Amino acid sequence: MKNVFVLIFSVFITTILIPVLLIQRCSVIEPKIEKQQIVESNKVVHVYMHETGEIKTLDLEEYIKGVVAGEMPAAFEMEALKAQAVAARSYAVSRMRAYGKNGHPSHPGAELCDSVHCQVWLSKERLRELKSKNWMKNYWPKIEKAVEETKGLIMTYDNKPVDQPLFHSTSGGRTENSEDVFAAWVPYLRSVESPYEQEAPHLTDQQDISIATFVSKIKKKYPDCNINASNIKSSLKILERSDGGRILKMQVGNKILTGREIRELLGLRSANFKVAIYGEKMRFTTNGYGHGVGMSQWGANGMAKKGYTFDEILKHYYVGVEISKMK
Ligand SMILES: [Zn+2]
């Protein structure tokens, strides 16, 4: 009799209990949002206002609304706005953890500020001044919805909040590795395809500059550069491009400059460019708009239009991140 019980019990374990446990386990291996428990006791941020010198204490979620309004066109798709909200929140949380009450060295007492130094933040009052009544009526609620629907969600890498959720307007087809544009190698800032940017207004652009202006700008910054109007054609050569197409090294006479240096000097939209000479003019044809690292905002909007959700968009542009819920 005892043996029969043992047999029944063993059959129960092997045929029912273990499979049930396995199935339960499998079902939590790859959930859409990884619910890691990040305990965040302080959900208030201190934001330094550059214009007035004031430090505002804001509820984290209210702060995120002002960042989304300041950093992305509100006409963008809901999933793109949600992706921006999660990126903004990840940055804010990483700042809260890194600087806390002491604040950032550039603005003591505040871990964040309202400018591009951190992320642009606009108060509701400021938005009322800047935008139309219709904008406040139609778009502000949309931004609120994007933030509320992602409440408490951040991107994490290695169980830590992502501290550099960089983004830009338009990549030009492929984003950049962080180390090709800035000094640091960041694991999640890798070059990826950005295939849905067709609607971006500055996917390609042309900018004409006279040869005389180009030479004078170069000479002003690099006085020992040996280019002049007559030798310009033979003095310019693109030597190396990054994975995303931006110029890493360009010969300019006896100097080797980066595409970024030339972009900044001439005010080009991107360091991914070609240059041609027509008579007295140089024509720069740029691809993309911005530094090209991290999320392409127009690419995110294009992905949203194709049906991708905010977490899919973020995981595409920030390689290897997880979406985590703050407790
Ligand atoms: Zn700042």
TrEMBL record:
It holds the Pfam family SpoIID. Residues 50-157 form the Sporulation stage II protein D amidase enhancer LytB N-terminal domain. GO terms for cellular component: outer membrane-bounded periplasmic space. GO terms for biological process: sporulation resulting in formation of a cellular spore. It comes from the Bacteria. NCBIfam families: SpoIID_LytB, spore_II_D. This is Stage II sporulation protein D.
